[in-house]
Amino acid sequence: MMKDLKYVFYIGGTPEEVWQALISAEGTKQIFYGSVIRSTFRVGDLLEYVGPGADGDETVHVYGNVLDYVPNQVLRFTHFAGKSYTKDDNQEYESRISYLLEPVGACTKLTFIHDQWQEGDPHYENSDAAWWMILSNTKTLVETGKTLELG
């Protein structure tokens, strides 16, 4: 049984600042290795993380459909690995991503949940490792204006 990946970070910034880091092109390019989010953010519409990768500058790394969108509070979407990650395996594994932001004093509590995993999803272990780095980078970017040198 694959357990939910859940992380809670307290970030020295407002919900608006954390939201900008997670959603805006300036923020996502720094946190997600050059990728930006393309979406109308309307519930049911497509959401894609697009950036440099195996298929060139327009590689779709992750895509899904928007489930919930409340600016500065909630972004939830279905998650599929992009085509360049699934070339050898035609099965598409769906999971779900939730970003939940709430103010705590002068800080923001960011709760991140990657859940609804399907048994045998080959992207689980990578996700488990990568989210720590991505979320640590988010915290560092909001608090210092810089990202971590993760190499």
Automatic annotation (TrEMBL):
Residues 14-137 form the Activator of Hsp90 ATPase homologue 1/2-like C-terminal domain. SUPFAM superfamilies: Bet v1-like. It holds the Pfam family AHSA1. Gene3D superfamilies: 3.30.530.20. Belongs to the AHA1 family. This is Activator of Hsp90 ATPase homologue 1/2-like C-terminal domain-containing protein. It comes from Neobacillus rhizosphaerae.
